[in-house]
Amino acid sequence: MAKQSLKQQSYELIKSNIINCVYPPGTIITEDILCQELEVSRTPIREALNRLETERLVTVLPKRGIEVTNISLNELNMIYETRLLIEPYAILKHGCKISQQQYLHFYRIFESYQTEPVEETAYYEVDEQFHQLFIDATENSYLINTYQTVNSQISRTRILSGRASQDRLFYSTREHLDIVKHVLSNNWDAAAQAMEQHLQASKSSYFEYMMKQQNFLSTQ
């Protein structure tokens, strides 16, 4: 690692391992382990962990180490409460800043997903780009940083829940398509409402998965 970017690179590598569940929720890691894995000193590791703690990805446990935070039903509820406050608002107030060319780009993608199988990895990449489009349009660093924190948790949840059903992917892309149709018609109220409905459906899907997991574990 280059000296001038040790802090940032340490942060990005540890965060990537957490988001991609290389360090699964509940894992206890230590500064010594991270120093060995990243081949850096304690200072950039500690600074990276401080940032990750503010993003609710780790909890520093005195004399025990660093715990990768779990994703509970309460955590998931807070995540979607935040998204429901931010994303419909972003469309309603700032969606008009986005060009029609960008909207048409996503329209063509989501329309194609209605007639052909959706590859999950590709879908989630497009999904993140689409949602981020509205957040970036706000040009509000507070909203952008908050959304970044929330999106990291959503990425972890996707990996932990395994492959989504093709039915859910189909309906999700159709929900996205409805949003784009409304924005192309400059019907911002309807677009914001469609985004809210999409987020509620997404929340229900993840809640259903987590409830099944809890019921499974309780029978073991």
UniProtKB/TrEMBL annotation:
All copies of domain HTH gntR-type, residue ranges: 4-71
Alphabetically list the UniProt keywords: DNA-binding, Transcription, Transcription regulation
Residue ranges the record marks as coiled coil: none
Which organism is the protein's source? Answer: Jingyaoa shaoxingensis
One Pfam family recorded for the sequence? FCD
Record-linked InterPro entries? GntR_C, TF_FadR/GntR_C, Tscrpt_reg_HTH_GntR, WH-like_DNA-bd_sf, WH_DNA-bd_sf
Per its UniProt entry, which superkingdom is the organism in?
Bacteria
What is the name listed in the Swiss-Prot or TrEMBL entry for this protein?
Answer: GntR family transcriptional regulator
